[in-house]
Structure formats: structure tokens, C-alpha cells
Amino acid sequence: MELISLITLVILIVAGGICIGGGVHFIPVGGAPAAMSTATGVGTGTAMLAAGAGLTGLITAASMTGQAWYLVALAGAVGAMLMMGITMLIANFVYIFGVGIVPASSKASIDPITKLDQDPYKTPGTEGHGVPTVCFVSGIIGALLGGAGGGLVYFAVDSFASASPVLSGVNATAAAGLAAIVSVGIFFINSVAASYNIGGTIEGFHDPKFKRIPKGILASAIMSLVAAIFVILMLGGI
Amino acid sequence: MAESNLLNQNNLLILGILGGLIGIYLSGISTIGGLISCLGGICAIVWGADAIRRVASYGLGTGVPSIGYMSLGIATVGSIAGLTAVLAFPALGGLAIAAPILALVFTMIIGACMGLVAVKIIGMKIPIMVRCTVEIAGAASLSILAFSSAVAGGFAAADILNYVVAPGFIALFYIMNCMAIQHPYNACLGPNEEQTRTLKCAASTAFLAMTITGIIALSHAGVVPALLIVIVGLCGWYVSFKAFLKASYEAAASVKWTGLWPKVEE
């Protein structure tokens, strides 16, 4: 293992971690209140949304194993965006046709994208409901970043593991398995760090909490760096 | 809440670490090695569930499962690094026998970094955040290693890579152990949550995870050791789940008979 690939590994893992941590800030996480349609966003926690979209992204990224880094990252992004889009769409079906509410944001009085009024449609006493257009677009951007980040981490660990002397004597699929589980681990570390930073719920890039993103990115960068050091310890190369 | 603990947190820590490590080290014994290893994993899961219970009672703001998933993420990176570091660095070759301890230490270091980042950079206000993140990650690491050694028939890195990581069982252990560790407090939290009831639930989820590990162990460990794990796991699940149900009925009875919700202790 040459020195340059070690540096590339660290850069790719940290860049991937930053993309994941930053991406989570875009995703409309509504938490328990949204599950009762009393807050905007998808009614579950960050860990669940990240698991759904991120793991789908990792599967599509893994289908590109062996390709160039941007193809792996792109495949991850497409998978995660697709899954996040479907999640938000189906959540909206449930909110609109099941609960009977109009998607409305509480953090913006006018939707920045469609320019439609939000306040008149917001039920008094609630923090908005459903997934309005701005949140949907924000969620897709978040999934793009998260999926691409997961793909980058997968690419980095997989290409490092395939060349590692540690895996020379074992089953050939161990490298892909190791890369997958390590990228899942790094994905969750970063997404939960970001989720701690936003304090559980956020509507998207128009939410005032979005301004906390620099701290979230710093936390993700540090944790990804720590993880990268342990990946080097895992696979050797110094 | 902390006053009503029947079991001391340090005793549970010792139970988890010692039980887990003894289980992993004895996993190489023929026939009953896997069973002992799984029982060690159960000690670790009960310890982890108690640590989750302590930290999540402060209110994480992100739901109880989030810290479970994160800790398992830390644990998979740390544990595999601990196991394979002896292969990756020939200078550490003499430490092969200490691989599980190395895995635990690596995991705890990453856990401590995460706890410090959460407190110092993100600014979380939970005083026991660092300690509990370290504990949950350590418990997750021991439980993953214990179940993996039960399947692979020992804690040698090459065996675990071949029989647990390559077929993808490691992903199952990730989610399954996360559920076993975070579910008990997530299910029991509320005004009259109490330690013994939550830990009974933890024992039942841990035995259930052990049963599934037994089924996985059929792939490599052989029929008799695998069946032993399944049978002991199912018996343990039956006993612990029955105890958990009984405790739940008893706790519910006080509400039912008096009609009053128990006082919330803050």
C-alpha cells in the first residue's frame, strides 16, 4: 500500500462523512409529533430515515463495485434519492388521504419554491404537517449528499480492502462485506452525530436550525477522521 | 430515577465485560464453546441495555434507537479493527491472543471520541454522555464478537472474516444486537419504568438474538453446537419473557387497582 492511497483513503472517508453529516441536515425529520401529523416532515427519527435511504444508497453503490469513484458515489446518490423520494411521497399520501391534512410548512410563511402561502393551511396549535414542496426538495438534496457520501466511504474502504494483505488469505467476498459493514457503521456514526446537532427534528434548508450545519459538519469530520484511522488499523498499510 | 436502581451500574459493567470476554475466550471449546460465547454475549447485551437506560432517561431528543445504531456502528468498526490489527501489523503478532480485548479497547476509544464530540462540539447537556457512549459501544462490541465467535467457532480474525463477514451475517448481527440493546428501554420507558423490568426485557431480547445466532451457527459450527444454542436460547427467552410479562402485569396492576398514574420522579 503506497502512501498516496492512505491519504486518498482518509480524504475519501472524511469527505464522505461530511457529505453524510451535512446531508442529514436537509432531510425533513419530523419525529414523533410528525407521526401524529402535528409537525412538518416524515414521522420518524433520523436514524430510521438515514437507515432507509442510506442503506438503499449503499446497495446501489455496491452494485457499482469496481467502477470509478464518481460512478460509485453517483449510484449511491441515486439509490438514496429514490428511497427518500418514495418515503416522502408515501408519507404524503398517508397524511393527505389518510389523515386529511394539507402539507404546510411552519418555518416558512411562503414556500420558497412554489411561492404558495403556508400559514392559512396550518392547523392552529400544530407545527405544520405533511411534507410540503420545499421540504420534499430539501429531502432529495439531503439524500443526494447522504447517498453520495455513503458511496464514497464504500468505495474507499472497498478499494483499500481489496488490496490489503489482511484479506489475502480469506474468502474473496470478505472485502465487499467488510467495506459494506464499515460504511454502514460510518454512515450511522455521522448521521446520528448530525441528528444530535439538529436536536431531533428539522424541516429542511429553510429551517432556522439549519444554521447549525457548520457544527454538524465539524463533528462529522472529526468522527470520520477517527473512523478512518481505525480503518487503517484494520487493514494495515503503514 | 437513579435512586431506584436495584443493580449497581458498576456491577453490571463488570458482569458485561467479564462475562463477554470469558464467553469469547471460551468460544473455541468444542461443542459447548458456542453456547458459552452466546451466554457471554447476553451479559454484554444486558449491560448495554442498562447503559442505554441511564443515558436515554435524560432525553436524547433523537429517540432511543439512534444511540443504539450509532454505538453498533462504532462497535463494528472498532471490533473488526481490533481483530484484524494483529494481522495487519506483524509487529503486533504476539498480541493475537489479546485480540478481543484490543477490539473492546478500540471500540471504547472511538466511543469516547463520539461522546466528547457530542458534549464539546455539538453541546449536548447530558453529563453522563461520554461514559454511557463508551459503555454502550463496549457492550455492542462484546455482543457482536461473542455471537460472531459462536458462529465462527473461535475469535481468530481469519475465521470471523470467512464465516461471519464474507457471508454478510455481520450485517444481521449489527441490526439484531442493536435491537436487543436499544429495544428494552425504548419499550419500557415512561413514568413507572424500573430497572429490573427493563433488564428482564433486555434478557428476553438477548436470548431471542441468541436463538437466531444458533440458527446462523448451523452454517459453520455444526448441528449439535448450533442446536444447543437454539434450545438454550429458546428456554432462556421463555423464562425471561415470562418474567418480563409478570413484572409488566404487576406494574400495571397498581395503576388498575388505584386508578392513579404513578408519580413521575424527575
Structure description:
With 238 residues, chain A is an all-alpha fold. Chain A contains seven helices and two strands, in the order H-H-E-H-H-E-H-H-H. Chain A has helices at 3-24, 31-35, 46-62, 69-99, 133-162, 173-198, 213-235; strands at residues 39-40, 127-130. Chain A has a two-stranded parallel sheet with strand order 1-2. Chain A is elongated and about 65 Å long. Chain B contains nine helices and no strands. Chain B has helices at residues 9-25, 33-56, 64-88, 99-121, 129-152, 157-165, 169-188, 195-217, 223-258. Chain B is globular. Chain B starts with 8 loop residues before the first helix and ends in an 8-residue tail after the last helix. The mean pLDDT of chain B is 88. Chains A and B meet through helix 3, helix 6 and helix 7 of A and helix 3, helix 4, helix 6 and helix 7 of B.
Main sheet makeup of chain B: none
The strand order across the widest sheet of chain A is 1-2
Note the overall shape of chain B.
globular
Spell out the helices and strands of chain B N to C: HHHHHHHHH
Topology:
The complex is a heterodimer of chains A (238) and B (266).
Chain A: H1 3-24, H2 31-35, E1 39-40, H3 46-62, H4 69-99, E2 127-130, H5 133-162, H6 173-198, H7 213-235
Parallel strand pairs in A: 1-2
Helix pairs in contact in A: 1-5, 1-6, 1-7, 3-4, 3-5, 3-6, 4-5, 5-6, 6-7
Chain B: H1 9-25, H2 33-56, H3 64-88, H4 99-121, H5 129-152, H6 157-165, H7 169-188, H8 195-217, H9 223-258
Helix pairs in contact in B: 1-2, 1-5, 2-5, 2-7, 2-8, 2-9, 3-4, 3-5, 3-7, 4-5, 5-6, 5-7, 5-8, 7-8, 8-9
In short:
The complex is a heterodimer of chains A (238) and B (266). With 238 residues, chain A is mainly α.
From the structure above, extract its key features.
heterodimer; A: 238 residues; mainly alpha; 7 helices; B: 266 residues; 0% strand
